[in-house]
Amino acid sequence: MAQPILPSEVCSLFRGYWRGERHAMQIVAAPPVRALIRLEVTLGKQARMLRRQDSDADEHVHEGMIQTIAHAAKHQGLAKPADFEQRRDVGPLLRKIVHDRLVDRARRRASREPKTVLWDEHQWSALAYESNPTAPANADAERLVVYEHLLDTGALRLAHALAYGAQHDVGLIELVSQRLRGAHVADAALLRPAEETADRLDYWLCNVPQAPAPARARRALAWILRSSDETDSNHWQAMHKSEADRALDLLRTWQERAETVFRVHAEATRRAALAA
Length: 276
Prior knowledge:
single chain, mainly alpha, 14 helices
């Protein structure tokens, strides 16, 4: 039986209490809410449909977290029932919200998104260099200049840029990979050597042509950036679930920090244009 969830424990997810995406991630990543999402994924009304798309429950748990936060952020909080504060357990309400988000996402991605990111050590060395070694394909010239400037000045850390790229522009991930390979530089937050990280990022890009990356692709990215495991991302996820969950939460934090950097840069650019 699921642990009861009090309104006060999750109120910041709802309209009128909204405190931002970062705080929302802390709520959905908390054990009681994560367990509730897993319950919906494994035993909910659409569990069979989800399993047909992908048998890995963790895929749908993380997708449910991401989609719930994105939906809340879009409307600045989830819709709040009139009797929200009086409920002794808002778990059923959260399950319904997560259920709707998962079903919507499953229907959208059924015909156009890859179900998995396979990590085949026999293939990746040959595939790793299929990506264009020049400018990122998904970034226009103006955005590329911004990326280069923020990376050159240190305003944007490499780790933060990688997490941002998975959500917004995989071209930025390609640019970071080039920097890691060319200059042999690294970020202390990245646990593998620079050259190895670049090799694995290149292979990741061959499997993930555009942003936002699917949930499992994000787990593969977390494995690249936040582990030294030499097997594969699926094995790492299965054997080190807590470590994998922490890594995914950290990637979300990095993404938010990068988004803040880009907002500050855009505002500074706007003010400079007005002052000119």
